[in-house]
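Bench log, entry 3. Co-assembly request; chain sequences pasted below exactly as received.
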Amino acid sequence: MGNFFLDNEDIQFQLGNLDLLKIAKQQEDRSRNGNADYVPDSPADAVDNYYKVLEIVGDIAANTLEPNAEAVDAEGHTLNDDGTVTLHPLVEENLKRCRQANLMGFTLPREFGGLNNPTTIYSVANELISRGDCSFMNIFGLQGNAETINAFASEEIRQKYVCDFAIGGATGAMALTEPDAGSDLQAVRLRAWQDENGQWYLNGVKRFITNGCGEILVTLARSEPDVADGRGLSVFVSRRCEQIRVRHLEEKLGIHGSPTCELVFNDAPAELIGERQRGLITYVMALMNGARLGIASQSVGVAEAAYRLARTYAASRCQFGVAIEQMPAVAEMVVDMQIAVESARALMYQTAFICDQENNNLRILEGGQCVDKAEEKERKSTARALKRVAGMLTPMGKYFCSEMANRVTYDCIQVLGGSGFIKDYPAERYYRDARITTIYEGTSQLQVLAAIRSVSSGIFASYVEQYESKTFDAALLDDLKTKLIGLREKTVEAATFAKSQASGYLDLSGRRIVDAAIHVIIGHYLLEQGAVNERKKRVARRFIEKGLPTALAGLEIVLSADASAIQEYELLAGPVPTVE
Amino acid sequence: MAYNSIVCIKQVPDTAKITADAMTAEGTVNRAALPAIFNPEDLYALEAALGVKERFGGTVTVLSMGPPKAASILRDSLYRGADRAILITDRRAAGSDTLATGYILAKAIETIGSYDMIFCGRQAIDGDTAQVGPQCAEKLGIPQVTYLEEFLNGEADRVRLRRNHGNGWEVVESTLPVLITVVSTPDAVRPWAARRVMKYKKARIPAEVISPEELESLKAKGLLLEQWTMEDIHADFDRCGLAGSPTKVYRIQSVVLTKEGFSKVEPTEDGINGMIHELITDRTLG
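Structure output for the full assembly:
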């Protein structure tokens, strides 16, 4: 009996290095427990529960999801004539196990039967799930919908829907994208209208909806037909019904186990979540942040699976009389895969850690639970500070982890060679599954746009200040820290320069600047890990020194002021191909 | 119609992780050398009982005999959905063979009183006797169905079961109460349920509790598990432990299988014919 949590030393190490007691204290502070009989006695008890829950997830991921993944990928789901979807029986089995294990209300309050786990633990769970079957994470990881209802809906709606997730094991979908509204959600057209009794109905089409066949849908719709932009949008919740039909199941490159639906709403009854017109600007933005972190976890999980496959294969495959890992080029690929996974994990966990503090602070602040004005004031100021950091780390995490997963799964196939290209090994599936991660929940390009503002506005520099002031016992770590300080200076210089250039240049330079900034941030995380672990010292050295010249080269390009990609676009990109 | 089930479970050394230290010089199992686990077929028995509860309602009580540390499989059972857990732990039960164990379990089951079905794993991986379940049924004077692979249906006074006897299966009916030994279940054994783990991880048998205050606190929270002695089940001491065990281990031999040379078969018609002939002669085939 394998266990994807217990067999992973790096997860144990990195989780053990986080201040989980701090998270647990905040998570349990004024938590809504109802009459649940499984409330922890203390923060330490809550932390013990985190480990136990992850052990359960690790068990299901290793013994159910992973063995089922190949068949699910090969066979997919079935669209029925009546507009419903029959999930692959093995996906049903996966869901059944998660329900039996009470995992479907992972982060929800105990009042509704949830486990009240913090986002950090949910992120680890998503990673474990994704290592078992990357595509199943899309179903398991959509619990953010329930969180949105829990966070923003009225008490009445909350009571009506939230238990269905935690106790009933319902799955959900967030129906945002439309044929003409992908990255630009302000263009959403699906119409919401109200009859004379105040009942809302939804009319229109949603496209590319992950698990759109789920039981509970959270839908972004235009409730104010006269307001054309994002301020005309509200968020609604509805149950699956005859008026919501799946018209089409997409045929995709990867994540076949995740049903991607085109949905037609035909006067489907719905209930308003929160206030009108705050749909996109407040609720969806909150939902998206959680979803982005989810994709970061998914990326780390599939990359972990790919790394393990490559490591095992490189050790056992012999050519020219030796295991191929003894060939320098293969050895370097395997080493870089492992370091990529570990460094991405470090960023993902730290991001989740900050998000937890932000979420819990907001829960008490916005739930009107502050004991007095003084607390409210303090929490407001904390909220502002945390929002800035989370607003930087979340897009960075999503961007870095998903790009990393693509590189690592690509290299996994390379290490396996011909065997990686055929379907006898899961390498090609990992590669196909990872591909979407840089696209959905905001493309890499959009993540960079979100992150570059933090670098150019000084949030980045002030965030790494706390790390730069640390001193280490080991000379190696101090030396590496000096290098990171140098890179930070150069990064800020490049960002300031790019900002001073003509409009569009900062966006054009975004990727290079953000890459360098992420290198600095993760470098500091690894130094901290190196201070308590000998192997991590070597990991930090390899990561920081190998990436430094690349980061600096990118910044040189920024400082060169080369804007030809936009200035000479027509010339360099060539004419739009015409069909004769 | 709801059924009350009792599941007999055992904590066993994980024989899959066997090493040279697995046996003591006296020929008994060296429990310290191997991790203790939930006997795998007893997990199937528990799953079968929980499946029946899910379908028809009722209760599931787990019953085990063993040292205090066997309380961990009681908690494991509670994590998966059992309603009540009892450990018979008594030095006078130590050294029991299958006859004595069957007797003690039967006495405990009589003490529990009302039940419709008793589920046992077919056999435990440490002794591999497959005797305890059937002996227990005989002592209770109730029918037994061995090798269950699927619980098909239940009515008020009878159940329909499919048993797998190795070369095929048969469907049988039995009156209630009945003792059933289980080899597998159609569905995999359910995982731990997180909410139950968070609650029952604190459950203890009295032998695990240090202070009277803790005992009272556990009792108040419904987390004190039942711990029974020979007196509690009104057992006749002469029939328990070494005194009640006619089985005596005569000798333990460590058998190491080694390969003795090999023969090469040419990939020709003659070569293959020769190999088949040889396999028939030594009765590997035919």
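The helical segments of chain B are 40-56, 71-80, 98-112, 132-140, 194-200, 212-220, 269-281. Chain B touches chain A through twelve residues (CB under 8 Å).
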